[in-house]
Design a protein that fits this description.
heterodimer, A: mainly alpha, Four Helix Bundle (Hemerythrin (Met), subunit A), B: 534 residues, mainly alpha, Cytochrome C Oxidase, Chain A, 15 helices, globular
Chain lengths: 262, 534
Amino acid sequence: MSTSQTTTTEHHPALSHQFDSMEQQQDASTFGMWVFLLTEIMMFGGLFTAYLIYRIKYYPAFVAGSTSISVSWGFANTLVLIGSSFTMAMAVWSAQTGRRKGQVWFLIGTMILGAAFLGVKAKEYYDKWDECHIPGHIIGKGFNTWGGCSASDKSLGNIAEEIRDPEHGGNPKTPEVAAQQTAQQTEIFFSFYFAMTGLHAFHMIIGLGLLAWLLLRARSGEFGPSYYTPVELGGLYWHFVDIVWIFLFPLLYLISRHQHGV
Amino acid sequence: MPAKHYLNDNYGIRSWLLTKDHKRIAILYLFSISFFFLLGGMFAALIRLHLLTPNGELFEADTYNKLFTMHGVNMVFFFLIPSVPAVIGNFLVPIMVGTKDLAFPKINLLSWYLYMAGGTFSMIAMITGGVDSGWTFYAPLSSGYLKTHVIMLAVGVIIAGFSSIFTGLNFIVTVHRMRAPGMTWGRLPLFVWSNYAASLIMILGTPVIAITLILLALERGFHIGIFDPKLGGDPVLFQHMFWFYSHPAVYIMILPGMGVISEIVPCFARKRIFGYSFVAFSSIAIAVFGFVVWAHHMFVAGISVYSALVFSLLSYAVAIPSAVKVFNWTATMYKGSIEMSTPMLYAMAFIGLFTIGGLTGLFVAALGLDIHIHDTYFVIAHFHYVMVGGMVTAYLGGLHFWWPKMTGRMYPEAPAKLAAIITFIGFNLTFFPQFILGYMGMPRRYWAYPPEFQVLNVLSSAGASILSVGFILPLIYFLWSLKYGAIAGDNPWKATGLEWETSSPPPTHNFHHIPVVTKEPYAYGEPEEVPVVH
């Protein structure tokens, strides 16, 4: 098979010079995206591994930290992201079937849901700032021994108290010293909480940029049944970021809540 | 030379800085990595100069720490990792598989810009006072104690890492999806196989060093606890995560070099490679084993005896595919009609020096012996036998071998042979004494040493000055040959492989007609099969 005849017979404007056919181009691009997502898995994988190692090392502190973050907001965000995956899949389908309006509206819908996710995330971050649960002492009011705010307002974000409070699922028999020690160790939980959700949110922001770029191209009617690879690749990326959240949500918010066993 | 080729297709600085041609990007890489090689070499020269006397009379201790850090960072991240893949591989992989370009030419150009951006960050860190963490960035020293620009340097390394991820991604997709008709996996040149294996490590390992250094930078910048024991972190975890990438990274460095040797040896022995599939799959085996040996860097760092035993055993296993290659190259040369050209001199030097480097690797993988020689000059010598004796030698051999293809002109043979011999002598004089020094107990990274070690240190420094002559000579005659070298012709070595079937230098789209592959690679020894020189 000589390739000179395939390049001359039908030359789609979106066909890059290095490929012989649109089919090969789409195949190679999709494969490339999967390889890229593999590198992303390794990147998040390193972070997840470190998280799990510390979770074993500081188990009570991680349980206390996990209990102190809001499951309902996290759950709401999970629904938002699953919804955005649906609209994204619909946008890809609209591109494949040549529905231009559908592409535009489904992309806009995906972007709104993505922005909603980031909004909720910002609210959660603000709460952490308010409760003095930002690790380190550069941003926020500093992390105290009992894991809460300043000495004048000991009630706000006091993890040590929650560890001993039966209403929060705690054990009142826990000695105060042990509760305070555990509360201080939650700082490392919050380090990972911010590193993991921060890296994920960073990917969401990149994803919103990609969607905006796709939206502009979709509006000009660039995509149709013969050429929809960019939308498909954007979809792969978006679904991947969703799946990362599907792992983050249970790891950070759900597992072993309410098992204060110090 | 052909009237129209990739070098004269168009002119001007824009045509280079915005090029999507993999061959031009390879040339961009060639210039930039040569710069970082000279820079790293300069730091090495200053280190060797300082170690001429036992009491550290040339530099302050802090300055000395910065010198070895910048030597390591420049050489590892900005020379060795991109050297063969980004220069020779970028140029050859698409041609060898018979296609017009890499799968993603824009991403290929982006990878060069990322490399330059990473290089710029590391240069800024260097110029504004240097960094003294060692190239290994061990926490908590780097995250909590040093006053130098650790974050700046880490950012440079992270960005350069993405450049190597993109190179690896491009190679993998190209090899999978863009092979010419008839170019089956079993007909791929071994250079492609070894670059493919290195690409696997690039895409799977590099993201882990990125996240590790990001965590390190977060800890340093925001004082959040991850690796610093004062903040509840675990410094050994940093070492695990660092070496999870940085050990496989040494196979990113050496595998493409092995690919170069697998091309040169059959050509100048005029024989087909002995055991093609064993050589091909040994590359994949090295890539796989390479991922499960990282903790052998940490035998004395407080890991458990059981895990140390397992990692020691697995480290021994890497020797098997490496030895397969060495034996197969040797068997290829056996009863061949060997031509002692410059590339072949480098290839033979590689086989000998890599064998020494590899065997001493077994010394340091042995649990008992490692306690004695850990963190001594023995480790330095072992690493440099593999990286300089192996990788740099292979890189130079490859440059000589494909120089006529890249430029259309021959380098002068006599000075090239001289340079190869000078490099070999200088290299051994530099690093062999370091094996003895290390075995006698001289620790690495020390600014001063007991006077009884001086003789061997002087020998080593003398060798370094000879070695530098061996490295500067090619720089001169390569540049000279661009104008005055003899016209090479399409296939000066009468070698097999698609790259020798196109013109020298190749046209922008590599081939006038996409080739159809009908025969196995390395079909040497069949006179009628050798392509005729036009």
